[in-house]
Amino acid sequence: MPGTIAMSPPPGECAQCWRHAYDREVHAHLGWREDCPECVDHMVTGHPPHLIVPGRRGWW
Ligand SMILES: [Zn+2]
Ligand SMILES: [Zn+2]
């Protein structure tokens, strides 16, 4: 896996926030210093359970 960045969110992460963080095109329509409503919504109300990627990384 050297040098390879998987473009799918890891288990336990919020799929939306992960995508917004790694895919710049998601925020491409936003103006300079303009907040993303979806990101703000997750920061304020939290991440909906259905957006959390299922599975665990096996460190338990
Ligand atoms: Zn989120
Ligand atoms: Zn966003």
Structure characterization notes:
- The chain is mainly α.
- The protein has one domain.
- 28% of the residues lie in helices and 0% in strands.
- The two termini are 23 Å apart.
- The mean pLDDT is 87.
- The chain binds zinc ion (2 copies).
- One zinc ion (ZN) binds next to helix 1.
Give short descriptive properties of this protein.
single chain; mainly alpha; 2 helices; 0% strand; 60 residues; binds zinc ion
Secondary-structure map:
Blueprint: H1 15-22, H2 37-45
How does the overall form come out from the CA principal axes? flat
Radius of gyration: 13 Å
In whole angstroms, the N-to-C terminal distance is: 23 Å
Helix content: 25-40%
Query: Taking all residues together, what is the mean pLDDT?
Result: 87
> Are any ligands bound, and if so which?
zinc ion
Low-confidence stretches: none
Number of strands: 0
User: How many individual helices?
Assistant: 2
- Which class do the helix and strand fractions yield? mainly alpha
